[in-house]
Amino acid sequence: MTRITGKDASVKNRELAALAPIIPVLVVNDVAHARPLAEALVAGGLPALEVTLRTPAALDAIRAMAEVPGGVVGAGTLVTPQDVADAVAAGAKFGVSPGATASLIAACEEHGLPLLAGASTATEAMAMLERGYDMLKFFPAETSGGAPALKAIGAPLPQIGFCPTGGVSPKNANDYLSLPNVLCAGGSWVAPADKVESGDWTGIESLAREAAKLER
């Protein structure tokens, strides 16, 4: 186990953000869907995959997706140190959280898991910056003021890069991605529940291809 610092984590997260404009935010209910879902998204040009720890199948889904060539799988909805330990054991290469607590940050640093921590205010962003984190998740994006709010935060804090998540869609993705402090965005629309449940991997790959073309 190799410890990392906030600065190390931010470097890794910026590298992750550079892979594609959109990071799929995935809720996997059936582990049988995990590998074909990952393969479809990677084939469509979205290699960074966030599997949220919201279902009993999530950790097994991470294990399955970690074996997909070209993919980089991470664990979302990290809330506790135990979530971090479980995610790392399952093969997660990065972690995403809705917010940040001292114990969660410490667990990620101890386990060497780059954390993309959530922040929605200037104070939260500044607190993370003090710890070396200059790449954060803006969450919940739309209900926190959307692109205008993130633009406003970027004026006094231009050194912080963001991945807005929460309400990001094809209709507003460009509003976010056009901002200088947005490096990528997280979205669930590239893997809609109906297509996942029906096994429409071709349809999901098509959605991924469209998302991968978004400009930033």
UniProtKB/TrEMBL annotation:
UniProt pathway annotation: Carbohydrate acid metabolism; 2-dehydro-3-deoxy-D-gluconate degradation; D-glyceraldehyde 3-phosphate and pyruvate from 2-dehydro-3-deoxy-D-gluconate: step 2/2
Enzyme class: lyase
Record's keyword terms, sorted: Carbohydrate metabolism, Lyase, Schiff base
Keyword Lyase applies: yes
One of the record's GO molecular function terms: 2-dehydro-3-deoxy-phosphogluconate aldolase activity
PROSITE patterns membership: ALDOLASE_KDPG_KHG_1, ALDOLASE_KDPG_KHG_2
EC number(s) per entry: 4.1.2.14
Catalytic activity: 2-dehydro-3-deoxy-6-phospho-D-gluconate = D-glyceraldehyde 3-phosphate + pyruvate
InterPro entries: Aldlse_KDPG_KHG, Aldolase_TIM, KDPG/KHG_AS_1, KDPG/KHG_AS_2
Quaternary structure and interacting proteins, as annotated: Homotrimer.
Sequence similarity: Belongs to the KHG/KDPG aldolase family.
Name of the molecule in the record: 2-dehydro-3-deoxy-phosphogluconate aldolase
Organism: Halovulum marinum
